[in-house]
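Worked problem 6 (solution included).
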Amino acid sequence: MAEHNRRIIIIGGVAGGASCATRLRRHNETIDIILLERGPYVSFANCGLPYYIGGTIQDKNSLFLANVDLFKERFRIDARILAEVTKIDPATKTLTVLNHQDETSYTESYDKLVLAPGARPMRPDLPGIELAGIFSLRTVPDSQQIKDWIQNHRAKRAVVIGGGFIGLEMVENLIQLGIHTSLVERNLQVLPTLDQEMTIPLRTTLQQHGVALYLGDGVTAFTQGKHGLNVHTESGKILVADLVILAIGVTPENKLAQDAGLNLGLQGHILVDKNLRTSDPYIYAIGDCIEVRNVISGKKTALPLAGPANRQGRIVADMLVGRGRFFRGVQGTAICGLFGVTIASTGLNEKALKQHNDMEYGVVYAHPNDHVSYYPGAKPIFIKLLFDKNDGRVLGAQAVGEAGIARRIDVIAMAIQMKATVFDLEEAELCYAPQYGAAKDAINVIGMIAANEMRGDLSITHWNEMGKTGSVVLDVREAYEVATRALPNAIHIPLNSLRQRQHELPKYQEIQVSCAVGARAYNAVRLLSNLGFRASLLSGGEKTWFNLDNCHTDKVACHAAREQMDFILSWEIMRENLPDNMDLSAELALLHNPKVFMNLPLENVAEAFRRMETITATANQEIMKQGEKGNYFYIIKEGLAEVWQQGLYDDTQQKVAELGIGDHFGEEALVTGGTRNASIKMVSDGVLLRLSREDFLELIRQPLVQEVEVDTAKVLIAQGHNILDVRYEEEYEEGHIPDAILIPLPELRSRLSELDNSKNYLTCCLSGKRSAVAAMILRQNGFQAFGLHNGLNTWTDTLESSYAN
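Solution. The predicted structure is:
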């Protein structure tokens, strides 16, 4: 009787499972490989799901890296979807499989088994957790459900619970869809896997994009309210949402392993040896479901990332054909992008190192540019390096900024893998050209600072020790810098004056020196040390202190962020409230910056688009010339353009901006009656909408929504006008005019029946933009209404708050 081919069954067909199956086939053509996936898709890019929801990835099919047919035709792999393994019997080496296509069960036998079921999103047992509109994100169907819900329910408000990678990516994509988003995170910071001071730039970025942040607060329950889902928090707040995204982490898919008697770790992950073999020698496990070793600390951990899962799949495939491979462990290299800001990390963070009593570590900060400052477009990198103070071995790094982050963290990640030291970073030979880096790259700079401390050339004082034990803080920045943001209780002597003014410093007290980012302070420390002073560096300068100091401050409302939210939301509501016979959605959707139309009656906006003519443009065509009298207002419908401007004393023009689809130009000269202040040149062929000077002036000079100043508003209130606050609940509860009625602007049209049309109303928001649209909607529906000009920004009386101080 002929011997049967070896049969390898892999449970789980995404990252690790798919990698294992395909590499195994490349090793051996005769093995029977069965890939079982309980979902409807194999080998999909789950890291791209938030961007599919947000529309950055428009074609869902682009998320699929392979399908059942490709596995069969290219690799002779029997890949099965909707095939859920319900039981493993290690004694007989068999599986029970439920076929969800016809709900029948069958049995498969294996010679070796690979478990790659991944992890599932955590769904805490909270009251109301099963209400419609509360979602987790793990699979393509999950993303489609969220996308459909947003469209079908015309969602305008969302609450994201959890400030990790998935939570932040969902926040960004929801904001880009025009959805007002609140973020609730139980920790006092976003991205809890990083050190808190490194996440302050992300917190600022979130606020600048209108995200309502609730840090240090958890969720206790969900209820169905009259106007949406109510999200109840531990602090007593109630956030109203059209949808809720749960992004509080994952837990391993371990039921099969547990029922099969495999050994599990304390957190439920499958235990494996260095060859990724479980407690059953015929069963391997890979991916998010297993416990792994941190290569730096040596401790057991879990790391649900795609990179390690793929590498583990390759290693197990090698083991299955008799190659001696082992998994070295993980170091936690990760990256996240948020509204143009990138943050990345590798190795241990300082929070983890503080738990290792046997590891004496050092920490240094720096703020180098991503490339030389003389080449246009240089962006600062805020970087933190952690190292072993005994031998200089690199232990971890974190960096945040707008450019060059991934490259630097990748270099340090490889340094950690090779057990490199800060001296290696100091001497690293890296690519350099002005547009890419510097002769002393950011990696060299952070390595030099740490190496200087290791050699004894530099003494570093940590910021939590600033000014303690009788020490003196010296700030060597220029006077104008100190005036902008001063260090507390610091002596100020600019670096260039330090030699001449050294007599002002105490000779026998420690002097802790700071500047803006650390470079001048280092020179000051060396100067003072050579002059016989006891001097140390406050690493990273005032910029680092600012981030560290902000770790301990309460959330501060960002008025610029809230005003931006007012602007965007007002425009969206204006578009929504067009009468049925004004179908301008395609044209209005073009505009990226609709400021020119804000506060105009809707009829005027509609009429403007009706009167616009469509023209074609060719590459290099000059549409508008600086100095000429303006005759048209333009919107780019297709193509790209550049803005060129000549200064008062310049002989040549310089490019100052780029324009794309949805951008508009030309209104300034029409409004002022002056000449064009810039030239617009097409970069490519394109299509433009344009409105003549006469039509533009006629429409924008129509009576605008009637608004009143704050003093007049107080008189109207005293005369009996009702106050209608059109902000969101969380904004209202932070502070509102006494006795104000709350109806958020997105709900106003559907809740007009709650208002008395025999009464007069004064509408208000933060900046006046939402209230202007609200007043316009009320007047269109027969109400007498005025908007509060400039909103609550100008309100001088005390506001009531629903929260105790």
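Discussion: Confidence is low (pLDDT under 50) at residues 554-558.
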